[in-house]
Write a structure and sequence with these properties.
The structure holds 3 protein chains of 3 kinds. Chain A is of the alpha/beta class. Chain A folds into 2 domains: 148 residues, Rossmann fold, CATH 3.40.50.700; 85 residues, no CATH class. Chain A contains 12 helices and 5 strands. Chain A has a 5-stranded parallel beta sheet, with helices on both faces. The longest helix of chain A has 13 residues. By secondary structure, chain C is α+β, with helices and mostly antiparallel strands. Chain C has 2 domains: 199 residues, no CATH class; 132 residues, no CATH class. A 7-stranded mixed beta sheet of chain C has the order 1-9-8-7-6-2-3, with helices on both faces. A 4-stranded antiparallel beta sheet of chain C has the order 5-4-11-10, with no helix packed on it. A two-stranded antiparallel ribbon of chain C has the order 12-13. The chains are: A alpha/beta, B alpha/beta, C alpha+beta. At the B-C interface, strand 14 and strand 15 of B face strand 4, strand 5, helix 4, strand 10 and strand 11 of C.
């Protein structure tokens, strides 16, 4: 086999949960280190090397001018750049503040806003070329493994783009929308979680972002019919992926 | 009961470079018994794969006398990319042959028109070989082959021999020619070769393989000069996972491309080729 | 003797007998929310169910299935097939689902056979239960697949009041009952069955006229109903299709699957597996170089309906049996019987 690929893991605007998910790989972590060389991971390593990297995994969105500069520098030193998790893909939960004026959100948190110079929260794809995305908030650790294995085999990873409904059916779950009129985001949300929430009787929150070719308008109509107000529907579509083209209209433009 | 899903070890006997991203591979089963019993027809396909990567449906382009066969592979997906990295003597796994193949009985004594686009020529090569070997069994042979650029053309090393086939015509066209490269044939779609075409609709069969849009327009042009739908055969591409009509992916209307095709008479598939 | 009766309270006699030789699957909840699960005690069995989420195909053609393992050593692969050949018994399966299995049996046999499905199916005993309270979504009567069963069972139960009428459909069924305490049957019991059948046939809320339907749908490829379902706001009473794939995954005759390989972290060994797929998903018809033969939602929903009306490549073997699961599961409330009516111009 060729030399082990070098891997960098970076955090931008996000909660570090995606990186934490990687630490949940406990049972295969030592095996993983036999096939990749993690040269940069501030959360875990004392000594980090400033690139270049064969693969860089980016957690978090971009929300300051400094971050724009940093992500561009990492891109320069990376062969493959992966948006790792929803924040890096389209801003995710931090991007909820994009829907109100910047001044308003700053005043909610800080007494002196003169030192704050944030931009709207965007996925890294706003500023740099992204070679692959691993969806989820956080992505499932298996998708990370799948991606690593596929990179070593030089093939496209098998990452599911279909809706949560598919995984729900695999698990023989009753549909929450049709049986209990619960506003579930499953029909427009990308699978990969194994229908975690619906299997426990809770609606899908949409944390893997839009599936391939979702019909968001139809689901918004269904939500309206089961009694949701327009604002509630918008909040649902805004929560994890409001900035994506797939959900932007239903999130309130 | 046979396990149809099981793929068997095969060896790459020879690799021929066709273009910057296309090679032709000569393959044979490792098991001698299996290889001895292997029989395939032009137009059929094999499920060829590598464990850990997956399988792809690849058409048989040439059948050798010792029973090994060749397939032309363009590096476009997971499996083809992995095959592309192989060297002579390397192993892969395969099963087949599957599908119907070209209507060989129907062709006897008739004029044959072959219209191929890009990587659509390999499935038709078996027919050219057949006519070449049994020249007196067939009428006039006309080959119209189009590709994106001259470099993208496959089997260039055979063109000379094909031009020598008695009672035949061979016409080439490309979409574009890069600056400085030598090109003496046409520039344009395959249908731009049709005005000079010698084949007429009487006692003739047209065999089409290439992008679906090319086949549709070629068929349309043939109809204007009097070809009936049942004189036109097309070979289709679809996503295939099993190769024998169970996984469902290759459905086109009421047909499985893998089992009922990939070669179809145009009259049976025409209603579905566009809308479905 | 080919028929008996058993008092409902004694149904565990049958259960105990079956358990000696078989792993038993049956409906586990009343009403609509039931699923077919392994049953180890009679209390878990709910014969008063309307329908299950997944049909019994989940036992023979499961959502995930391993086909074989492979191991790479010194550039050669060794493979090992994985077959599950457990003896299973389906207890309380409805006529529509029995008909669906008969269709799948035909589908997976023929010129090419699916060894995985057929091996499991061969070791199965079917104890069917006629429907006396059909689900409000079902229309099996229109398709001749219910509510009462004529074929495909080893043992058939009919609720005739305080007792079940037991009819035997095979030697296997006969053997199973030889050792069980069952009572004799009278003409009155058969009359009661007949009476209940007629009564049940009047209870259906949904109907589908299938006469010429495959031909009609084949000629209606450009009908506006498809774009109404796929892109516009749906048809009267429904929303537009979500392409969520639920309809096909719960369909007892939908057979489509994807085949894929997974390797472990050493990259040297792995599994070739299959997973239920759905023609409603964008990736289903995708080919290399980003080609997709059914990229429009309209084309996808049309293909599924065509298949259920018997006009796709599966023909009659993947056609509808009227169980009503797709109607119940559809978040957009798309009703196949209504689509059929629109196509017929009714």
């Amino acid at each position: 086999m060729n030399k082990k690929p070098t891997v960098g893991i970076f955090k931008f605007t996000g909660c570090a949960g995606c990186q934490l998910e990687l630490l949940h790989l406990e049972d295969v972590f030592l095996d993983l280190l036999k096939i990749i060389d993690i040269t940069y991971w501030v959360m875990v390593k004392r000594e980090n090397i400033e690139g270049p990297w064969d693969i860089s995994f980016i957690e978090g969105g971009i929300s300051t001018p400094q971050e724009i500069e940093e992500i561009k520098q990492i891109r320069k030193k990376s062969k493959i750049m992966v948006a790792f998790g929803d924040c890096a893909i389209a801003g995710c939960i931090p991007s909820i503040r994009n829907w109100i004026p910047q001044m308003e959100s700053e005043n909610k948190v800080y007494t002196d806003t003169s030192v704050i110079h944030s931009t709207k929260v965007m996925g890294i794809g706003e500023y740099v070329k992204v070679d692959a995305v691993l969806k989820g908030c956080p992505p499932h650790r298996d998708t990370f493994l799948e991606f690593i294995k596929a990179s070593l085999l030089q093939i496209r990873p098998r990452l599911r783009q279909h809706p949560v409904c598919v995984e729900c059916k695999y698990r023989d779950n009753e549909c929450l929308i049709t049986s209990k009129k619960i506003p579930c985001m499953g029909p427009v949300t990308s699978a990969g979680c194994g229908a975690l929430c619906p299997s426990l009787g809770r609606e899908c929150e949409g944390c893997f972002g839009p599936m391939s070719n979702p019909n968001a308008a139809a689901l918004a109509d269904i939500f309206k019919e089961i009694g949701l107000h327009q604002e509630d529907i918008e909040r649902k579509f805004r929560k994890y992926a409001g900035m994506t083209i797939e959900f932007r209209k239903e999130a309130g433009q | 009961m046979k396990n149809e899903y099981m793929a068997y070890p095969a060896v790459v006997k020879k690799i021929l470079k066709e273009s910057s991203n296309t090679n032709t591979y000569t393959l044979a089963f490792v098991n001698e018994e299996k290889q001895k019993n292997f029989k395939a027809l032009p137009g059929q396909f094999m499920m060829i794969g590598i464990f850990g990567i997956g399988e792809a449906a690849l058409s048989i382009c040439k059948i050798d006398e010792d029973g090994s066969f060749s397939t032309t592979v363009r590096n476009v997906g997971n499996v083809t990319n992995t095959i592309y990295q192989l060297k002579e003597g390397d192993k892969l796994n395969m099963r087949g042959p599957y599908g119907t193949g070209w209507p060989l009985e129907e062709l006897k004594g008739k004029d044959i028109l072959i219209v191929a686009g890009g990587i659509g020529l390999p499935p038709l090569r078996g027919i050219i070989d057949l006519v070449q070997k049994n020249r007196k069994n067939y009428g006039h042979l006309e080959i119209i082959y189009g590709a994106r650029t001259p470099e993208d053309m496959v089997f260039k090393y055979e063109f000379g021999a094909w031009r020598q086939i008695k009672n035949s015509r061979f016409d080439l066209t490309v979409d574009t020619v890069s600056l400085g490269s030598k090109w003496e044939c046409k520039i344009g779609l395959v249908t731009s070769c049709f005005p000079q075409m010698k084949t007429r609709n009487k006692n003739s069969i047209a065999l089409l393989c290439g992008p679906e849009i090319m086949m549709r327009f070629a068929a349309k042009c043939l109809e204007t000069i009097g070809f009936k739908d049942n004189q036109i055969y097309v070979s289709l591409e679809r996503r295939m996972k099993c190769g024998f009509g169970k996984c469902g992916h290759c459905q086109i209307g009421p047909k499985y491309v893998c089992k009922d095709g990939p070669v179809f008479s145009y009259d049976e598939i025409r209603p579905y080729i566009h809308p479905l | 003797m080919n028929a008996f009766t058993i008092e409902k309270k004694n149904i565990h006699f049958l259960f105990d007998q079956f358990r000696k030789d078989y792993k038993i699957y049956g409906p586990t909840k009343p009403g609509y929310e039931s699923t077919f699960e392994e049953i180890t005690s009679i209390d878990q069995l709910h014969l008063d169910y309307h329908s299950t989420v997944l049909p019994p195909k989940k036992i023979f053609h499961p959502p995930h299935e391993q086909l074989f393992t492979f191991l790479k050593e010194k550039e050669t692969y060794t493979t090992k097939e994985i077959f599950l050949e457990e003896k299973t018994l389906l207890f309380g399966i409805h006529p529509c689902d029995v008909h669906a299995l008969l269709k799948l049996d035909k589908f997976f046999s023929g010129e090419f056979t699916d060894i995985y499905y057929l091996k499991r199916r061969k070791n199965t005993c079917i104890v069917a239960l006629n429907c006396v309270e059909p689900s409000k979504y079902s229309f099996c009567y229109s398709l001749g697949t219910g509510p009462f069963l004529e074929e495909g069972y080893d043992i058939l139960l009919t609720d005739i009041g305080t007792e079940y009428l037991i009819e035997i459909g095979s030697d296997e069924g006969k053997k199973l009952l030889e050792k069980t305490t069952v009572e004799k049957v009278t003409d009155a019991d058969f009359h009661e069955k007949e009476r209940r059948q007629k009564l049940t046939e009047l209870k259906f809320k949904k109907h589908m006229n299938t006469q010429w339907l495959p031909q009609i749908v084949s000629e209606s490829l450009n009908h506006s109903v498809w774009s109404d379902l796929g892109e516009r706001g749906g048809i009267a009473g429904s929303h537009a299709c979500l392409s969520c794939g639920s309809c096909s995954l719960v369909c007892p005759t939908c057979y489509c699957y994807d085949v894929y390989d997974t390797v472990d972290i050493t990259l040297q060994k792995g599994i070739r597996a299959r997973e239920l797929d759905s023609c409603q998903l964008l990736e289903y018809a995708e080919v290399a170089m980003h080609g997709n033969f059914r990229s429009d939602r309209t084309a996808r929903i049309r293909h599924w309906m065509l298949c259920k009306f018997g006009a796709a490549a599966g023909g009659h073997n993947s056609g509808c049996v009227g169980c009503g699961r797709c109607i119940r599961v559809c978040p957009s409330k798309i009703d196949i019987t209504q689509v059929a009516r629109i196509l017929r111009g009714e």
